[in-house]
Amino acid sequence: MTQTIAVSSQKGGVAKTTTCLSLGASLSEMGHFVLLVDLDPQAHLTLSIGLTPKELRRTVGDVLLGNNSLLSVSRESSVQGLDIVPANQRLVILEKVLQGRPDFQFQLKNGLQSLGDDFYDFILIDCPPSLGALTLNALTAANLLIIPVQCEYFAAHTLLNYRKLVEYMRKKTNPRLKYRVLVTMYDRRNKICQVTLEQMQRGLNRVLFETIIEVDTKLRESPTLGQPITLYAPTTRGAEQYRALAKELLNNGQ
Fold first, then answer.
1. The model's pTM
2. From the CB of residue 166, how many other CB atoms can be counted at a distance below 10 Å?
């Protein structure tokens, strides 16, 4: 059965897109077929896979409007078994259009259901850093939400907001939605990071991934060349940690 995972954070700069791409590449490296869905108008995931958003004729927006199927819009990447449904800045306008339509939260879910369970093992959705129509579509379609967070003062506030959001989505559109928390950009030399991580491990032990993604300059470099970390720098710490995350995800049955 296809596992649909949304990667979302209201805070920018927490490795949301990096997680979506690197986790997807790690899963495909293990032999799984993975579809990435870029729902962010900034189209960073699309750029990170080596595509030029402004040159695209068809994007995820056409799927949300019901004009095209996900398969007809999807593109192959340089990684075997890893495809992407790209985005561009037209999603900014589309978000406003969607909000005026009845049951707009179900547009992506309907598109994914039309694929069936035979095409992809995993579908990873990169959400925009806001809680508008696009993110609501992702959370309605997903069975798991991954929330990347840094070990900093505002992490607790971010997680509290997302807990409330998950409860809301369970009541309104998606009763099966679960969530997990992923620590990213961890700096082991920083005392605040260490203290915050210890607090999170005590308070979030049921939903916190054991895998921790540490600061790695190669993770910042890889998107500029249109490659995931597993292809750009396969032996680095960042690549190994995202592989560990993929294994943990599989072992937990999520």
1. 0.95
2. 17
Pair of tokens at residue 177: 């939605």
* Residues above pLDDT 90, as percent of the chain: 70
pLDDT at 254 over 60: no
In the numeric block, the tokens 């009845």 are attached to: 102
pLDDT band, very low/low/confident/very high, at 253 (cuts 50, 70, 90)? low
What are the structural domains of the chain?
Answer: 3-251 (3.40.50.300)
d(CA 237, CA 82): 22
d(CA 34, CA 120): 5
pLDDT score of 99 more than 90? no
The Cβ of residue 14 has, within 10 Å, a number of other Cβ atoms equal to 23
The C-alpha atoms of residue 211 and residue 247 are separated, in whole angstroms, by 10
Distances in Å between the Cα of 145 and the Cα atoms of 16, 99, 233, 243 are 12, 22, 27, 18
127 residue type, one letter: C
> Within 13 Å of residue 72, how many CA atoms lie on the same side as its CB?
12
Distance, CA of 200 to CA of 195 (rounded, Å)? 9
Token readout for 23 is: 């986790």
